[in-house]
Amino acid sequence: MNLNNFTIKAQEAVAAAQQLAFNQQNQQIETAHLLKALIDDENNSIEFLLKKNDVNISFIDQKLKEILSKIPTSSGEGGQIISREVNQSVLKAGSYLKDFGDEFITPEHLLMALLNNNDAVSHLLKDAGLIEKHLKNQSSKFARVPLPTHKPAKIPISL
To answer: Residue 45 has what pLDDT?
Structure first.
C-alpha cells in the first residue's frame, strides 16, 4: 500500500485505523477498524455522506462495536498488519480513481470499497441502508480541488 497515492484525509483514516487496532491489541487492521476511523473523523465528508444517503449511523456505531469486540487480540509488541480484506478495499478504492477523475484515493473511495467487499462491514453498511448507486452519486457532487503542481521558486542568495 503506497500512502503517497492517498489524500491526507485518507492517510489519516488509515493511520487512525492502525492506531485503533493497536489500542485494542489486534494484530491485523481490519475493515471494521477502517470504517470506524472514517466515521469518527469529524473533519471528513463520510458522516455527511452517510446522513445524505439516509444511513442509520447509530446502528453502524453499535454494530461496529460488536464486530470490533470479536476481533482476536494478541499480547505482543509486534506491529499491526493489514488484513486481506483491507488490502482488497485499498485496491478497489484505487480502481475508483478513473471513475471520478481523481488522482488520489479519498475517504469516499475507501467507503465505496468497504461497501463492495463481501465481509461483515460490507453487510453492515448495506443493512444500515447504504446503496452503492446513491453513494457514487453523492460522492461525485463533491468538488475536487486539484493539488498544486508548481515547484517552489528558487531564491537567489547573494553573498
So the answer is: 85
> How many domains does the structure of the chain reveal?
1
Give 51-54's long-range contacts (Cβ < 8 A, gap of 24+). 52/138, 53/129, 53/130, 53/131, 53/134, 53/135, 53/138, 54/129
* 59 vs 77, more confident: 59
Whether 157 maps to a domain, the answer reads no
CB 45 within 8 A of CB 142: yes
- With cell 479519498, the residue in question is 106
Residue 102: all three cell numbers together: 481523481
Compute CA distances 67 → 11, 35, 60, 111, whole Å: 23, 11, 10, 17
Q: Which of 13, 149, 157, 21 is nearest to 90 (CA)?
A: 13
Q: Per DSSP, what are the bridge partners of residue 28?
A: 81
* Domain carrying residue 60: 3-140
Could you read off the pLDDT of 140-149 as tens digits, one per residue?
665 444 443 3
Q: What is the CATH number of the domain that holds 95?
A: 1.10.1780.10
Nearest in space to 98 (alpha carbons), one of 140, 54, 42 = 140
pLDDT of residue 79: 78
